[in-house]
Write a structure and sequence with these properties.
alpha+beta, two-stranded antiparallel sheet, single chain, 6 strands, 4-stranded antiparallel β-sheet, 185 residues
Length: 185
């Protein structure tokens, strides 16, 4: 029974880590990345569709993104969606593809992004600690009801703490990588 609680806690911690990875991938750095455009939705025949499901997004150079829609009639829709996004980039449409030059970030903007990244990572670590608390509460209930022994509860609690430490460390490493990437000129 305690094994199920540990498994559930680990699954939830994995999801928190994956969410943090996704957040970081969509965060703009001075470098071009297809991940920047993952959250952009385009009106595709009346449906709000993720951009990467309506076009090919490629990064031929360090500061250039090329978006080639599968349906040329979408060019203007894609351009509008990019302009409305929070990316602060200026797309240029040549009738076949959309090219986006990614301007280098100012020092001030880099520091802002690092602060945002730290905040996002901290929120993810709080989520992991909340998962630990929930799992420990469940274990205490099981022990109180006599479903598991005190020793089993202690072992499971230790196991959950190890998982918490493991995912917190992974999140810290991810944050360090993102900080380096943001501060890179």
């Amino acid at each position: 029974m305690q094994d199920m609680i540990i498994q559930d806690a680990e699954e939830r911690m994995k999801k928190s880590y994956a969410t943090l990875e996704d957040e970081f991938n969509s965060m703009r750095t001075g470098r071009a990345s297809a991940g920047l455009f993952e959250r952009i939705k385009v009106n595709y025949y009346g449906q709000s569709t993720p951009l990467n499901q309506a076009a090919t997004i490629s990064v031929p150079e360090a500061r250039l993104v090329v978006i080639q829609p599968w349906d040329k009639s979408l060019l203007n829709e894609i351009e509008k969606a990019i302009q409305k996004s929070e990316l602060s980039v200026n797309p240029s449409n040549d009738g076949k593809v959309i090219r986006i030059q990614i301007p280098p970030l100012t020092e001030e903007r880099r520091k802002e992004l690092v602060k945002m990244a730290k905040n996002t990572a901290e929120q993810s670590k709080v989520a992991v600690r909340n998962i630990r608390r929930d799992a420990n509460d469940e274990l205490k209930k099981l022990m109180k009801n006599g479903d598991i022994s005190e020793d089993d509860e202690k072992r499971a609690t230790d196991e959950i703490q190890k998982l918490t430490d493991k995912y917190s460390e992974r999140m810290n490493s991810l944050l360090e990588e993102k900080e380096k990437e943001i501060m890179e000129v």
